[in-house]
Amino acid sequence: MRHCHSYKPSPADIALEDSGAGETEDIFKYGVYRRMLADYFEESEETAIHRADEFERRVKERFVEEPGQMRLLIVVDKLLTGFDAPSATYLYIDKQMRDHGLFQAICRVNRLDGDDKEYGYVIDYKDLFHSLEGAITDYTSGALDGYDKEDVIGLLTNRLETARVRLEAARETVKALCEPVRMPRGRNDYFAYFSAVDSADAETMRANEPKRVALYKSVVALTRAYANIANEMQDAGYTSEEINQVKHEVTYYNHLQNDIKLHSSDYLDMKMFEPAMRRLLDSYIQAGESETLADFEELGLIELIVEKGLSALDQLPETITSNQEAMAETIENNVRRVIIDERPVNPRYFDHMSTLLEALIEERRQKALDYQVYLERVKALIDQIMQPESSSEVHYPRPIDTRAKQSLYDNLEQNTNAVLKINSAIHGTKKDDWIGNIIKEREVKKAVNDALTSEGVALNAAELDALINIIKEQDEYQ
């Protein structure tokens, strides 16, 4: 049986190493090994070998299952076969390899791991790839002779050539998506195409969502492709003028998608960037405008307005704040999205909020409001949406003192006694993880129906189901 390590420690190896001249190589290796296997090490050589196998098993497991916790794995003479870690992207080779061993080593980083990985990178310190063609020929004549030779040869490509092809393809994709936007392609033209001409046109806003998603994905792909080659663009054949042009395009389209996300309220569903994408932007784009948007990633525009008041609008991009129409539409779209998202929690209340919003939009469109007055009215509406308990639209009785009770109150014709009976019935009946469990849900439903009956409230089957759906949306009852 082959052991999974190349160094077998033994206290006898260093027994005579204390020469007074300091740490020798053997002492150094022994010490490193002890520190690495601190939780696995025992003095018996036989036991140490066994525990080393356990250590290697755990290391390989972490590298495959928790790549974020273990990003670098140094291998002396292992893992060329029978080891599958699709997330492995970079292979640094600093030893002599040839034939099928070299071929298999390359395969370690060429396994795909989702849409973000198209190929792996090989950093060759030993200049081994001049012999790769022979290795491929030898290997395909044996174990892989059922495959076309061209398919296997395509395994290895020049990184800069491939990176340039990807970058150019990404540029063309983004430009093609934006091509139908009417001239002169100002921000309002982009908003009209990717969102809606009229912010009150919720149907068009929904219908255009696939176009927005395609744009967001293509801009992410463009940013990644640019970052992969940004420091080597001259080596890839770009002129200085072309380098500046590409950087300008990447910056422009990143700002554009940010503005569209804000205008259409997609920030509530799609975070600005995953952490890795933010690092790419910070490293290569230096997009000053995007820095002012950082708060929106955590709270969203509406939450910021509640927290900071109308001064939060100053954090919007200048391309939006400089246009009152675009500013108003951005606010309205974000308010509408919050209403839609929150409606399942309290349908009747948020239906009323939706009516108030549409009336306010109509007043603005008819120019019946001064812009500053409009902003103050919007702020007041947002406060009612985000803090129903403080709303001037509804005055809750003293016992109706939680969001869950308020929701029941609004959707049960303001019947305080029925709400309190249902609230007690739910707390006295619901079991852990009851939502989604048919038997447990049935028990809660019966308890709610009994509470309603005791108060003389009769609901048909559809109405009772609707009420149960509202109850399941309440954090208090989960």
Overview of the structural elements:
With 478 residues, this protein is mostly helical. Strands 1-2 form a two-stranded parallel ribbon. Helix 3 (99-107) links the parallel strand 1 and strand 2 (121-124). It is flat. The two termini are 54 Å apart. Residues 1-6, 268-273 and 287-294 have low confidence and may be disordered. The protein is built from 22 helices and two strands. Helix 14 packs across helix 18 (371-386). It has four domains: 11-65, no CATH class; 90-157, no CATH class; 161-389, no CATH class; 403-477, no CATH class. The longest helix is centred in the middle third of the chain and has 25 residues, at 240-264.
Shape category: flat
**Integer tally of domains:** 4
Spell out the helices and strands N to C: HHEHEHHHHHHHHHHHHHHHHHHH
Q: In what range is the share of β-strand residues? A: under 5%
Number of helices: 22
Distance between the termini: 54 Å
Mean pLDDT: 79
Which class best fits the helix and strand makeup? Answer: mainly alpha
Q: Record the strand order, biggest sheet.
A: 1-2
Computed Rg:
32 Å
Largest sheet: 2 strands, parallel
Task: Report the oligomer.
Answer: single chain
